[in-house]
Structure formats: C-alpha cells, structure tokens
Amino acid sequence: MTKTILIATDYSLESLNILKKVLKEKDGKHDETKYNIIFVSGYDMGDSIRDLLFTTKSTIFGKIRSHEFCDAFSIIKNKYPHLINKMTCDIFTGSFQRTFNNYIITEKIDEAYYSPSIKSRGKGKFDIIPYIKKCKDLESHEITLEISESLPERGRLAEIFVEV
Question: What is the 3-state secondary structure (H, E, C) of 10-79?
C-alpha cells in the first residue's frame, strides 16, 4: 500500500526535522506502508506576464532551495528506503482555499504534517499552514520541533544528523 504525505516546508534544514520525526515514528510502528513524500511551500508568482510565462519550477527552486537542503534530502531518503517510495519538492502558487483543496485531491495526499516554528517567508515564499488547517479532506498533524539556537551545526549539513 502506498500513501502520500505532504510536509509544509520553507526549504530549510530545520524543516527536514519534520520528516525525520514522521519517518522515525512510522519506522517504530514497523509500518509496511510505502510513502510518497511531497515537500510543499507556498510561492507567490507575482503579476508580471513575463515572469508567469518564462519562470519554471526549477528556476524557483534555484532561488528558494539551498544546496544543503538537497544533500540532506538525499541522506534522509537513503536512511529510510523501506518506507519511502518517492520524495519530491513542489510549490503551491494559489491564493484561495479551494485551489489548495483541489491541489490535495489532484496529488492524492492522505496526510499533512507541519510545524508552527517553520515559517515560509522571504524570496516570494508564503506559509501554507493556514490552508492545511482549513482543508476538511486532509488528515493534518502538528509536529513540535525543539530547535536549539546555540547548535554548532546550525545551518550546515551536519545539522541533519542531530537527534530530534
């Protein structure tokens, strides 16, 4: 059986801790289900016709996703190969709740996880947590992350190896 999980992210290393917690919990239950995992951040495309016509998702990911995030993303994927079927990144560009609800249906998302401490801001990003909370067809879970400000590995790839 395959299920799809949405994780609200700002494409920081801290946001990968949500995935680590979820997979650790699923692994602890000896769950036989494989998961398709989608990291989603809101992104405001703006009103420029030129930007709407010529901007691609890879261009946007080049702006909002760091190299460290991509490396850590691959490390987690390799740590839980028995649970992960596919991991992808995506952006939500809508501004209405019904658009988000249609996105959930189209992507066949079963569960969503978010942390209030992860806020998508800057570089055109916006927070999708209010959309997740209002979506009636989606099983959502709030994850509490304890992020230490004095962590020496903060902002580096080594941060992904810190126990959450």
Answer: CCCCCCHHHHHHHHHHHHHCCCCCEEEEEEEEEECCCCCHHHHHHCCHHHHHHHHCCHHHHHHHHHHHHH
